[in-house]
Amino acid sequence: MDRRTFILYAGRYTLLSAMAVMGIFGLYKRKKVPAEVCILTGNCRTCTELGSCNLPEAVREKALQ
Ligand code: SF4
Q: What is the pTM of this model?
């Protein structure tokens, strides 16, 4: 294997590895909060799930906005 081929393969597999890691991270981040579990214990104003959350605290916070 010459140097050019080695660099080409190294770049290709580095890029594929980075894409796989980003994909796994994206799937992990997309996990939704189950309806009956609060992830921030009542701090709805700063919670990223406020739009899709239906817990009583979230409903109250949405009504105030
Ligand atoms: S929006 Fe409020 S109740 Fe719903 S998960 Fe977030 S902090 Fe908990």
A: 0.47
**Are the C-beta atoms of residues 55 and 40 closer than 8 Å to each other?**
no
52 lines ligand 1 (CB under 6 A): no
Among 33, 47, 48, 60, name the best residue to mutate to test ligand 1's pocket (greatest count of ligand atoms within 8 A of Cβ).
47
CA 61 / ligand 1 centre spacing (Å): 9
The pLDDT tens digits for 5-39 are 999 999 999 999 999 999 988 877 766 655 577 87
Characterize 23-37 residue by residue with b for buried, 16 or more Cβ atoms within 10 angstroms of its Cβ, and e for exposed: eeeeeeeeeebeeee
